[in-house]
What we know:
Elements: E1 4-10, H1 17-28, E2 33-38, H2 44-50, E3 54-58, H3 64-77, E4 86-89, H4 102-109, E5 115-119, H5 132-145, E6 157-159, H6 161-166, H7 176-186, E7 191-195, H8 207-225
Parallel strand pairs: 1-2, 1-4, 2-3, 5-7
Antiparallel strand pairs: 4-6, 5-6
The structure holds guanosine-5'-triphosphate (GTP) and magnesium ion.
Amino acid sequence: MNRLGAVVPCKDEADRIGATLAGLRQVVGTGPIVVVDDGSTDNTAALAEAAGARVVRHGVNRGKAAALESGVDALLAGEGGRDCAAILFVDGDLEGSAANLSVLADPVLAGDADMAIATLPAQKQAGGGRGRVVRLARSGIRRLTGREMLQPLSGMRALTPAAFEAARPLPPRWGVEVRLTVAILQAGMRVIEVPCELQHRVSGKDWRGVLHRAAQFRDVWLTLNAPRRRPASGRPR
Ligand SMILES: Nc1nc2c(ncn2[C@@H]2O[C@H](COP(=O)(O)OP(=O)(O)OP(=O)(O)O)[C@@H](O)[C@H]2O)c(=O)[nH]1
Ligand SMILES: [Mg+2]
């Protein structure tokens, strides 16, 4: 039985997705891997398929949160999905370091945590930001839950399907990591941080990096400050 599955949200990761999936396969074994290609303009989808992943495509870019929702829905509905006790969320840009993700999945598979979040070592590549989004996320999570997170925006997480359900509906785009942490803690579930030997592409000082951090700041702020959308029944889904 495959108790572990993975969802990899991607936008234009053709240069890295092959290496990321090769590393991830060592962790997931024969379990399902779903790559969500979120409106890429390169051949990310074809490369992911060639590497043996199941691929879900968004025709237009809908953002990371929507990609994770599509990915989890496809994973759980597809072959082997019902056996998954834990789902790994893996950014597409980790390359070979994705092979080091087992330490993240293990505590969730063992039933010791409902969500495990990877903390990353110093990155080989220097980042362009000054940590403003990280500080915003950290202080907001502290205010809403009392928890102090070391790396509140880390995208690499292992969680149970029930924990993911507790965080739905997700806020748009880059608010997803903060929502997962806050909602899962508020549901009384167990969240831990686990050091993991991962390296990713870090946004730099160029205009792309500046725009990325501005969008992250906006989405994290809105997630922390906008009232949570509730379904018609009045209960958070
Ligand atoms: N679904 C989706 N994924 C995206 C989008 N933009 C980036 N990603 C993916 O999200 C993951 C993280 O994106 P990055 O651009 O590396 O951002 P980051 O690592 O969180 O940010 P920094 O630490 O500031 O560099 C990667 O797998 C990207 O391919 C998007 O618009 N939609
Ligand atoms: Mg990155």
